Each structure stands twice: as structure tokens, then as C-alpha cells.
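User: Can you predict the 3D structure of Solute carrier family 13 member 5-like? Sequence below.
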Amino acid sequence: MANGTSGICNGLVRFWKSIALLVTPAIFSPLPIYFATTEHSKVAACGYVVIIMAVYWATEVLPLAVTGLLPIVLFPMLGILSAKTVSINYAQNATFLLVGSLIFAIAIERWNLHKRIALRVLLAVGVEPKRLLLGMMSATAFLSMWISNTATTAMMIPTAETIISGLSYDVEADRQEKHVQAKKISLSNEKTGLLSARTYGKGPYRTPEDLVRIVEHDDAEDTYEDEEGPSDRSAEQADKIAKGLLLGTCYAANIGGMATLTGSSTNLLAVEVIEAIFPKSNGIDFATWFSFGFPTMVLILILAYFYLQWLFLGCSCLLGCMKRERCRGLCQRNQSSAAYQVVQKQYKELGPLSFPEKVVLFHFVLLVLLWFFRDMRFVHLENDRAAGWTYFFRRGYVTDTSTVMLVIIPLFFWPSRPPSFLCCRNNEDAQSSEPAPPILDWSTVSKKMQWGLVFLIGGGYALADGIKVSGLSSMMGRLFKSASGFPPVALVLTVTTIVSFTTELVSNAPVAAIVLPILAFLAEGICMHPYYLLVPATISCSFAFMLPVANPPNAIVVSCERIQVYDMIKSGFLLNLIGILVINVAINTYGFPLYDLDTLPSWGKGYCQHNLTTTMTSSSALLNTTLTPGV
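Assistant: Sure. Here are the predicted C-alpha cells for Solute carrier family 13 member 5-like:
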């Protein structure tokens, strides 16, 4: 009997995903059935879809992108939205902004421009442990602003491991150097002992021979201590440096994505939620997000750097390695060290800046400039028009998506080598060569493109649209009225803390897709500026520093033999708290003038303008329907 029960339990554990997949819709099926014949049928049906998608995203019983496709099936079948209306949500402006940024990231990766940037930063900063950690985190964070955090981590970790091998070589060199120094000290002590023995006439050792034996014995013990003790300490220090370097690379990849609108899928989800729930708003463009996200990212990165330096390098290296003998060998080495030689060798293998790299770099700078100067809202011209290069086009027609497509389309026909015809022909070209392949081709894009993110973000947008159309948003707005007396500062602190630690257990994109629409309706219900909750909550989704399941960069680092889950939990918990503290300080200081948070915009007033009598009548009707089903 016990064996049978144990077998059943083991079977349930092995197939828990299949069980959750089938049981979840069955358990919550009474919700749409109960309200099927009432005026709140759409509200109940939409709540049913939200619960199913939340469970599926949290447990990952289906791939995240596949769960994002459920609205196309469930919304039409439950009578919430037509399939045609739902499908439009998967081709929104922010979705194609993500597609364009991913395609440009593929161009950067294809020609190794990201690797050149990272290695160049390391050579410029240096390879002392504290400088090496700074260089790796800075380079990783910068790349993560434009490339996905997963791709950035996958690229930087092999580089970090190669440098770590150079650090191990430096440790062995330090051990041999200490051994030689110990031998020299021993010989010097022996000579000094022989000289002092001539005047030694008292005690148990009265002859020079007796004193020489004692000196040799003491020198042997000193040599053993100098040879083994510092060596063990240096090896332990090198292991800590390796852990700090790997974790710092992983954390910087998550932190860097906070700075730009395209740096993380959660940032784009926030934009889509704002566009879906507040269609009359101006939305958040690249420059608007960057003005808040970049300084916040820099603050968190700096604090994370000093925190990891203190945790893994110790106070001696934090205050200056020259003050402590135990890490002097590791910290003093620079261009002569093996780690520096490794970085320099990898950089030399890249060769001079190639023509494709120059082309991609030119388009990258052009894209950033066009994004920044597209719509300078802080400069107002006549007719209430903002300055920027879009001033010459129809107002509101050209967006960040148009900009990125304008830049990446030429990459599909721009040649990957200089032209060699007519006046541009080289002297060594005897015959006309074939046309050079373009910087980008569709086969490369289709292989490396993360199409799942498109469906995931589209699913989040469709979910927010369904919540609004079904009337579930109205109900949520009325329910959230009770939170209107809660202090805004405390509310933001509570929300960011909950989101930060929830994303440790569930991937950040599903958390954002579920939480952001709810927060938008919460802000609307309590008459708070929506950005006051949405922006810090979105950035808090990137505070996934504790567990490998939180995001792919964490899993990549834990797969290394040097990093244990305990190391990530120990360092990530306090880093989560640091991130929560910084985002709350940021949104309550320079966030206010940037987003004008002290005033409620007209497009965000929502239920504040609703008639109280209408609200009470709707609430009474809902209560009566609940007590008397079938009416």
C-alpha cells in the first residue's frame, strides 16, 4: 500500500506540468459558467482568461510565447473580443520597435562589434581585480542596453572565464615569487645567525653549531608558512575574484536593460500597456524613458559594483590593495599579468576595425541620435509643436519604430566590403569582382531572431486590451478605490518590493504582463499619475538577482562550476534591496519633474471623473447578481 502511494506521488511529481495544464482550466471553469447569463459575463470570462494565463506563465507549463497566443483562442470563444480584433494586438507599434531593435542587435553580433567594445573597455580600465570588475560590469551593462541580456551574458561569460584562467596563472606566479623570496630571507638569516653566534655565550645553545641548527629549523618553518599560508590565501582570493567577476557580469546584464526602452521586453510591455489603457496619452518614447532609466541604471550599477567588490574582494581591495600584503601580488599586476595578456591577445585576434564594423557602428550612432532628437518635447515651438527632426512630417505619424526601421533596412543591401568598381577599384583588382554580400541577410536574421518575444509581448498587449473592453478594468478601478488613502510613497515601495521578489520565482516578462495592467487600473482608480506606479514597477521586474530560474543570465552563470546557488542567493538578496531603494528614491526625486508626477494628466483621470451615483449603482447590481445567480 505504501509502495502504491509512493508511486502515485512520484507520478504526480513527474507529470505536474501536465496536471497543472489540464486542471487549471477545469478548477476555474465555474467562474464564466456562473455569470454566463448575467450582464457581467464578459467580466467573468476575462477574469477566467487572466487566471489561466497567470498560472501558465508562472509555472511555464507551456512555453511563454505559446501562452501569449491563448487570447487568440480564448477571447473569441468566450465572446470577449473577435479574433480579428485580438490579432491586431500582436502587430502594435511597440512590437515592431522590439523587432527592429532585435534585428539591429543581430547585426552587431554578426560582425563582433560587441566583442570589440567589451575587450577595448577592459584594456582601457585595466585588469586589477577592482578595475577588472568595473570594466566587465561597465561593458556588459552598455551592451545590454542595446542587446538582450541573455545574448550579452552568453558573450561575456566565456571572456570572463578566459580572464579568470589568467588570474589563476598570476596566483601561481605569486606563489613561486614568494617561495624565492622566502629562500633569500632564509639564507640571509643563516648568515646573520652565524655572525651573532660568535657573541652568544649564555643559554642552552652555547656553540655556533647549535645556533646554526636552530636558525635553519626556524627558517624551514618560516619558509613553510610563507610558501603555504599566503598561497592558500591567494588561491582563496582568486576564487572570490572569479565569483565576483561572474556574478557581476550577470547582474550588469540585467541592470543595463533598465536604461533604454529597447533594453528589456518588460520596458516595451509598459509602453504597450500605456497605449492600450490610456490611448489619449503621449506615451513613452525612447528619449523619455532614457532620461529616467539611464541615471537610475548608473546609480544601481555603481552601488552593485561597490557591493560586489566589498563582498568578494574584501575591504582591503575596496580601500586600496597596496595596504594589505595578502592581495598585493594580484592587485599590483597590470600589463605584465597573464590576465592582461589574455585580453590583449583576444583583442589583437580581432584585427583592425573592419569595414562591416565601421558600417554597423555608423548606423548605431545614427540610430541613437535619431531616437534622441526625434521629438524633443522639452523644446516647444509655435502651434504647440515640439522640436525635432519629425517637425517636418505629419504630427504623431513618425515614431521610434519608424526610426529603427529606417536605419536597419539599408543594412540588408549595404555591402560588407568597400566597392571595387570604377574609381573605387583597387590596383590589385585585375577583374571586376562579384557584388559583396550585404551586412545583413534574412537567413541570418531568421535563425537568430527571438520570435517568442513577439508573441509574448503581443499576448500581454491582448490581455490588457481584453481587460479594458470586457469591463474588468471598471470593476478593478472601483475595487481599488479603497486604496486611495494609502500614502503614494508607501504604495510605490510596496509594489516595487512585491514585484522585485516575485520576479525571482517567475520570469520578468510574464510578471510584467500580469502586473502592469493591474497597476495601471490601480493608478486610475485612486487618481494617481499612472507613470508613478508603472515606471518603477517595470524597472523592478529587472531586479532578478537571487535565483537561477529568475532569468536566463542567472541560469547561464550558475551553469559555471565556480558559482553555486547559495552564492547567488547570498549576494542577490541585498542587491535586490539596493535596487528597490534606488528606484524609490529616483521616482520620488528627479522622477517627479521628468514625468510631471505631481499633477494628474487629463488622459489618466479615468474613474476620478465618473459619477459616484453610477459607481454605487454598478456595485449594487454586481452584489445582487452575485447573491441571485441566473438573473
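Residues 194-228, 321-333, 428-432, 610-631 have pLDDT under 50 and may be disordered. Strands lie at 376-380, 386-387.
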